[in-house]
Amino acid sequence: MRDHHADQRLRTTRVGSAAARLRSVALAIVTYRRPELLAGLLGELLCMDVPEQWQAVVIVVDNDPEASARRVFSEQRDPRHNLRYRYVVEGERGIPFARNRAIDEATRLGAEVLCFLDDDDYPDRRWLREILECRDQTGAHLVGGPAIPAPGDSPAGRWRRLVHNSVKAAARRSESRRTSMHKRGEPVQIATNNWLGDLGWINAQDLRFPCTHRFSSGEDTAFWRAARARGATCEWCETALVYQTVQGPRSTLRYLMRRAFSQSLSRGKALGTPSMRRIVFRSVPRIAFGALILIVPVYGLASLAIGARHVGAGLGAVASAAGLRHDLYESG
Q: Which of 141-145, 219-223, 237-241 has the lowest mean pLDDT?
């Protein structure tokens, strides 16, 4: 007589052994009081293609001490899906604190690699498969990929629609330039909107996001530079696509100027500020060039967005030399 209990134990053992052989990847999302965007991203992750040999765990790091994202997280997680979930609150306000908490949580969970996604973006269905395969094939410590504008309706109003389309055109131009740089063998900066890091290497180097960039952005630039200085191998995967939502504040010239201002200010602090005279000598032509592009569309549809960024970056460099500070994300 066949021992059905023995068969069941054998099947359970095989399933357990297969699970034990799975490699672990953590997908970290840092969020702060943007429940609708977080809900959209968590929903998109359910459509993501997870390679058979990998187990993915989604880590939501809520940077709101009041845990405002907990309800959305609880509603959007799907226990029937093969994704695992973890929600944590990082009470110390600031992007680098939340990103470093994600590194610590992923390490505690035994993840081999950590990926970052922004809460206002979403990945292509094959994104995770592509970025993991690139990492395995190259052995890179850091891997990045393009963040291209998501398809969607343009806002109402001729001016808003023009600026919106300019932002999308500038983003496509920027990603095309990064891909060309990679093909020429030039280093491509890896941003945390489409980012993979080897946790074993990161922890061996005791590498973390610098907390000097608390609200002003630029912490991923500083991390990338520090990693390269320690010998990190970096790779660009042009097939690992993430889609940026270009809506609301992101599609205004004011936001583009403020963001470029903040990034330039952070860059100046990180690199050490030369004399005011030297900074002004470099920045005034850039500000003037940006203002000219705003009027004369030498870059076609992308000119408005590119011009706004040049003006903001030039003003940020001057502000850095003057010792000013600007917290782009402090208000959330």
A: 219-223
